[in-house]
Amino acid sequence: MKSAPGGPRAADNAQVPPELRLDLPSYQGPMDLLLDLIREHEVDIFDIPIALITAEYLRYLDQLQALDLTVGGEWLEMAATLVYIKSRTLLPPDPEEDDDELGPDPREELVRRLIEYQVFKWAAEQLDDRPQLERDFFLAAPKAREEREQVGPPKLREADISDLVDALRRVIEKQREEPTWAYEITREKLTLRGMVLEISSILRDEPRISFESLFSEGRLTRHRVVTTFLALLEMTKLRMIKLFQSRLGGPDTLIIERAVIDIVEVSQTLEFYDSTP
């Protein structure tokens, strides 16, 4: 039996007969559980069946309580949020209220939080892997590091994954200010491979672009933001692009620069996952 979040096991697993053992997956928090439920039922994160997900979530909490496991406050808070959203979706609309007065889909805020959590969790895992990937390399001498920082456009410094995450956060914050992000009439069919090819094509004509320029007006969707973020991570890992952070006094800007190699040719020969994030 795996230990569940919020407290220790109720009894020593070795003293429980195998037929009576209940194996519960362990989650880092309620967001982990929700994302697992969404993957398990193969539903669209932008159109969550709130009644189904709420029932599964509450069933998991019941299993924890049946094992006398302490349930943390964040788990109960999410349960209350799900029940509230479910009640909102089940209530019939007031015929006297206009569509504008009804407000946005009550699931919208939950979807936004799930997407942010998913992306930042991925970024955290990438950051955690960096020391392991570099364990076979020696750190460059100070002079060598200074010379390396001079590579690229002037007044720019080499960016790392944390700068990419910051740029993504700025785009997501812009999302909150633009109500057009709430709904997508026609959802784009985006894949990781397709996004790499799209960015490669842009960089073939313009060797240096800003991160924000990838999200032109009318193409600013959550699905595009997440797919673009993952594509840039993959391209950086494969040294297809270089990332720089602006040192200018204005707003921070993440610059994407084409690498020396022919990234269009490379992206067409490499095999990428065709599944969406």
From TrEMBL:
<keyword id="KW-0132">Cell division</keyword>
<comment type="similarity">
    <text>Belongs to the ScpA family.</text>
</comment>
<keyword id="KW-0131">Cell cycle</keyword>
<comment type="subunit">
    <text>Component of a cohesin-like complex composed of ScpA, ScpB and the Smc homodimer, in which ScpA and ScpB bind to the head domain of Smc. The presence of the three proteins is required for the association of the complex with DNA.</text>
</comment>
<dbReference type="GO" id="GO:0007059">
    <property type="term" value="P:chromosome segregation"/>
</dbReference>
<dbReference type="GO" id="GO:0006260">
    <property type="term" value="P:DNA replication"/>
</dbReference>
<dbReference type="GO" id="GO:0051301">
    <property type="term" value="P:cell division"/>
</dbReference>
<protein>
    <recommendedName>
        <fullName>Segregation and condensation protein A</fullName>
    </recommendedName>
</protein>
<comment type="function">
    <text>Participates in chromosomal partition during cell division. May act via the formation of a condensin-like complex containing Smc and ScpB that pull DNA away from mid-cell into both cell halves.</text>
</comment>
<keyword id="KW-0963">Cytoplasm</keyword>
<keyword id="KW-0159">Chromosome partition</keyword>
<dbReference type="GO" id="GO:0005737">
    <property type="term" value="C:cytoplasm"/>
</dbReference>
<dbReference type="Pfam" id="PF02616">
    <property type="entry name" value="SMC_ScpA"/>
</dbReference>
<dbReference type="InterPro" id="IPR003768">
    <property type="entry name" value="ScpA"/>
</dbReference>
